[in-house]
Write a structure and sequence with these properties.
- By secondary structure, this protein is α+β, with helices and mostly antiparallel strands.
- It is built from four helices and four strands.
- Strands 3-1-2-4 form a four-stranded mixed beta sheet.
- The N and C termini lie far apart (32 Å).
Length: 135
């Protein structure tokens, strides 16, 4: 009913406020051209921006990565790309009705999970391949 939807909206807003208060990932600066080229050549990069989606199950809000955007060309480009595509990424799952939660650095999401979600009865963050791997 309407009360449950209102409570879920409040839970999501509370989670988004908490995330906004956390510092950005420390690797958030743009790589230099040399670093960027070296990282592309080595196949490694400084981090990822996660397109986080929400699914409501009962009173719970489940957060999961709908897509990830690597930082090969810098975190600002990854965040821009994520903000542009994330809503469609979340809606592309046939099995669930997912909605965009937001675009966040993976380290920030892991910190959010540890500080906020792990102690919250109704907010759950799904991890990808192993604990700490959000997207």
């Amino acid at each position: 009913g309407g009360g449950n939807e209102s409570a879920l909206a409040d839970t999501i807003e509370s989670a988004q406020r908490h995330l906004a208060e956390l510092p950005e990932d420390e690797d958030d600066e743009e790589p230099t051209m040399i670093e960027s080229a070296a990282q592309r050549g080595s196949g490694s990069y400084k981090g990822e921006t996660c397109c986080m989606c929400t699914v409501h199950i009962g009173n719970s809000v489940i957060l999961f990565a709908g897509e990830d955007y690597d930082h090969d060309y810098g975190s600002h480009n990854a965040r821009w790309e994520c903000n542009k595509d994330c809503d469609n990424d979340c809606q592309s799952f046939d099995e669930v009705e997912a909605h965009m939660f937001g675009c966040y650095g993976e380290k920030k999401m892991a910190k959010f999970d540890k500080i906020f979600a792990s102690g919250h009865p109704f907010v759950h963050v799904l991890h990808d391949d192993h604990y700490g791997d959000i997207c």
